Structures
1.
Amino acid sequence: MVTQTGSHIGTVSQEKADQLAPPPMYQVVLLNDDYTPMEFVVMILQRIFGKNSDEATQIMLKVHHEGRGVCGVYTRDIAATRVEMVLQTAHAHQHPLQCLMEPAPET
Ligand code: TYC
C-alpha cells in the first residue's frame, strides 16, 4: 500500500522496515588546528565524551598527527548536541577548535 506522511511518499512495508531498523548513527569528529592547547582538547574529550585520561590523550594525539579523529558515535540529536557543546566551550575559551558530525560508516 502506498502512503503519504507530510511530504514523504512511501509504502507500508518500507515504513515498517524503517521502524524496525536501528536509527542512523553519526560520528563526531574533532579537527586539528595549530592553536588549541593539547590539555584543553583532552579536557573536552573527558568532560563531553566521557573518555578517561588515557583514551582522551590517545584521541587528541591522533587528531594532532592525522588531522582528525572520531570522539564517539551517537544518534543524530546526541551527536548534534555534543558538537554544539564543543564549539560553545571552545569559543568561550577563545580557542579555534573545530568539530563536526557526519554519518558513521556502516559496519
Ligand atoms: N595541534 C594542537 C597543538 O599543537 C593540539 C590539538 C590537538 C588541537 C587536537 C586541536 O583537535 C585538536 N597545540
2.
Amino acid sequence: MASDCIFCKIAAGEIPAKKAYEDEHLFAFHDIDPKAPTHVLVIPRQHIASLAHASDKDAATLSQLLNAVPAIAAQLGLTNGFRTVINTGADGGQTVSHLHLHILGGRAMHWPPG
Ligand code: AMP
Ligand code: ZN
C-alpha cells in the first residue's frame, strides 16, 4: 500500500466509498463525480501507479482486473452495454495515480471520446 494514495486507502477501508464489488485482489466503488448514470471504478488492491507502470510481473493482476468486469457490469444492471476506460498519465487524463478501470453505463456513450 502506498501510504499517500487515496485509492489504496479506499481499498483498505480507511476512506469511505460506495462499494460495488470486492474480492481478494480487487475493489470496486462508485465514482464520486459520475460521468454517466452508472460510473464505477475497479482497482487492484496492489498499488500500481498507472498502466504505464505495469509490467510482466503484474500480468495476473491485469488479468484479474479485466476478467472481473463482466460480472461487475452485470451486477450493475448494464445489460445494454457499457464503456470501459483506463486513463494513463497526464495526456491520458489520469488524475489519481493508482491504476483504475472506469465502467460507465446507463446511457449511450459517444465516440470518439474527447
Ligand atoms: P482518472 O481521471 O481516470 O484518474 O479518474 C479518477 C476518478 O476518480 C475521477 O473520475 C474522480 O471523480 C474519481 N475519484 C476521485 N476521488 C474519489 C473518491 N474519494 N471516491 C470516489 N471516486 C473518486
Ligand atoms: Zn494506491
3.
Amino acid sequence: MIVVMEQNATPAQIAHVSKAIREFGLKEHVIVGTERTVIAALGDDRAKNKENLEVLPGVEKVMPVLAKYKMASKEMKKDRTVVNLGGTLGASAGGKKIALIAGPCSVESREQLLHCAQAVKEAGATALRGGAFKPRTSPYDFQGLGEEGLKILAEARDKTGLAVVTEVMAVDQVELVCKYADVLQVGARNMQNYNLLMAVGKTRTPVLLKRGLSATLEEFMLAAEYIIANGNPNVILCERGIRTFETYCRNTLPLAIVPEVHRISHLPIVIDPSQGTGHAHLVPDMCKAAIAAGADGLIIEAHDDPEHALTDGAQSITPKTLKDIMPTLRKIAAAVDREI
Ligand code: PEP
Ligand code: MN
C-alpha cells in the first residue's frame, strides 16, 4: 500500500509513519515528489490494517497498490523518473530530451571503438554502447574482449564525454563493470536472472534493462521491480523486440509498449531498433516511429564497417546513416514536444 502524506507534512511526521510501517513488519520507501511525499509500504500487507496508518498525523490517505510491481508503477509515483546516464554531454532518459545511445554491438578493438565513438558523437549521440561481455548463442562465436573492452570504453568516455552503456552478464562481473561503465545493460537473456537483478539493484549505477525474448510486459515490469526494490531507482526499460512466428525480421518490435509503459509506470523506456528488427535497412524508420510513439531514448547499433563487424553487422547502421537521419528525428521529436 502507499501512504500519501499531506502537502505540508513535516519530516518528523514522515519519520513517524516510516517507523509505524516498520512496526507492521513491512519495509518503507519514501518518495519525495514535486507536490507531496508518498511512502510505500512494501511486503505482504494483506493482513495489515490500513486504518492504523490513516490516523497518524500528516497522513492524507492510504491506498492499496493494485499492480504487482509496486515501486515501478504509476500508482506509486506520478512524476516521470528521469535517469541521468552520466558522461559530460547531459545524457538522460525520461525528460524532455530523448537519449541517443549509439555504438557497435561489440567492442572489437581500441581503434574501432574510439573511431566509432567520435563518429556517433558527431552524429548527435550523447551515450556510447558497446559490449565487452557478449551473450552469444554459440560458444564458438566472439565472446567480447572482457575487461580490456571495458578499459577501451572508459577511454572513449574520457576522450568524447559520451556516457558508456555496456552489458553485465553475471553477478560476479557487477563490481568490475561498475568500475568502468556509466550504465549497466542487463541483456534480454538475463531479464529473469533474479540474482543478477538483485546484484545490480544493490548498486546505484543506472541500469538499462532489456525485455526478455518471450517476457510479458508484467514480467518485464516485475524484473524492473527487483532492481528498484533492492535500492536502485535508476532503471531504464528497453524494448528490443520479442520472438514471434514472423521471419522477415529477427524479432518483432512492438512499439505500442511505449505508450503502455507510460500509462502504467513512471520509468523511462528506450527502443532498440537494431536487435528489434535485425536488419539495418529497417532501423532508420523504426527510429522515427519510436520517437513518434513517445520513446524516451534510442539505443542503436552503429559500425563504421558493418560488413566486417564481429557481431550483429547485418543490423548495424553506419554513423553516417545516423547523421543523415538526425534532421528527420529532430523534426519528429519537435512534433511530439521532445528534443533529440
Ligand atoms: C546487444 O545489445 O547487443 C544485445 C545482445 O542485446 P539483447 O540482450 O537485447 O539481445
Ligand atoms: Mn547486438
4.
Amino acid sequence: MIIKPKTRGFICTTAHPEGCAVHVQEQIDYIKSKGSINGPKKVLVIGASTGYGLASRIAAAFGSGAATIGIFFEKPASEAKTASAGWYNTAAFDKKAKEAGLYSRNINGDAFSDEIKNKTIDIIKKDLGKVDMVVYSLASPRRTHPKTGVTHNSVIKPTGNPYTNKTIDFHSGVVSEVTIQPASEDEIKDTVAVMGGEDWEMWIQALKSAGVLENGFKTVAFSYIGPKLTHAIYTNGTIGKAKEHLENSSKAITAQLKEVHGKAYVSVNKALVTQASSAIPVVPLYISILYKIMKEKGLHEGCIEQASRLFAERLYSDSLELDSEGRIRIDDWEMRGDVQEGIVPAWEKITTENIHSLSDLEGYRSDFFKLFGFGFKEINYENDISPIVEIPGVE
Ligand code: NAD
C-alpha cells in the first residue's frame, strides 16, 4: 500500500507505520540526550499511545529505565486500511524498549471498563508485583460508565453564554468567526463524567485494593489553563469543569494513598498539537500564534520536552514546587508575561491574508501530520509498504 494522508475535518484517517516509528525514535533520542532521570521503575501509563501519555512512557522507559505497561484504544490495520497512529507508535515503542532490555506490555481496550482494570491488575501481579507510578493521560470523546452502563459524550462548549471568537481551518488557513452556543446542564455533567477524575479515582482505588501500589507511589493526570483569550472555550467551558473535577480527584486520591505514602498530582501542561487539541475550536489558531512567539524566543517545546521537564525537574527532582492550588506547572513558559504579551496584538490583527506572517500555521500543520507519521524526510512516501504491523503480545 502507498500510504498518504487522508484528512476528514480535524482528523487524519490514515497513518504511516514507518513515519510513526521515526516520530517515536525522535522522542527516544531526545530523552536519551537529556541524561538519566532518577525516576520511577515500574510504570502504568493509561492513554499511552499518543500525545502526553506516549511522551511520558518514553521518559519513564528511556530516561529512568522503567518497566512500562501501556493502555490505549487503537485500531490495528487490515490489508485495506492502515492502523491508527497510536497503534504504530506503540509497535515502534515496544520494539525499541525490548531492544534496550526494557519490559514493555500493551493492553488495547477501553480503559474506562472494569474488564481492562482487572486485566491490568492481573498483569501487574504476575509480571511486576507492584507499580510505583501511574500516568493518567486519557483524552476521549465518550465513556461508558462501568457501574451504570450509561454512555456519556463529552462536548467542547462554553458555559453560561454563547461565545464568539476567531477560529481557523488549519488545512485551508481560512480564519473565520465562530459562535458556539453554551452547553446545557446535561452536557456539562456528561463532559465531567468523561474527562473529569472519576475514572482516575476508580483506577487508583482498584490498584490499591489489589495491593499493587508501591510505597511512595505517585500518580499524575494532565490539565490545561491557558490565557484569558481561550478561557470561555476551555477553562470556563465544559472541559474546564471536567478539569476542575480532575483537580478535586487528585486531592481525594492523595487522601486515599496515606498507607502507601503516595501522592496524586495534576500537572498543568502547555497547549500542543495533539489529536485531542485539534478538535477544540479557537485553540488551533491560538496554538499557531503561540508556536511563532515561543519559537522566536527559543522556548518552544513538544510533548517530549514537556515530559522530560515533568519527570526530571518536577516529579523526580529534589524540590517540587507547586502553585497556590497545589498543581505542577509545566505551562510556565507558555504563560510567561513576555510570551503572552505577544499573543493579544497578533490575535486582534490576524486574518486569512496575514496568517503566515502573524502565526506559525506551517509549524502547526507540520506537527499535525507528524502525529500520523507524515512529513518525515527520512521516509519515502512513494514506497509500497504493508500497513500490517504487529505489537507482539498485545492484550
Ligand atoms: P491524545 O489524543 O494524544 O491521547 C489520548 C490517549 O488516550 C491515546 O493513547 C488514546 O489511545 C487513549 N484513549 C482514549 N480513549 C481511551 C479509552 N477509552 N481507553 C483506553 N485508552 C483511551 O491526547 P493528549 O492531548 O495527549 O491528552 C492527554 C491529556 O493531556 C488529556 O487529559 C488532555 O486534556 C491533557 N492536556 C492536553 C494538552 C494539549 O494541548 N494537547 C494540554 C494540556 C493538557
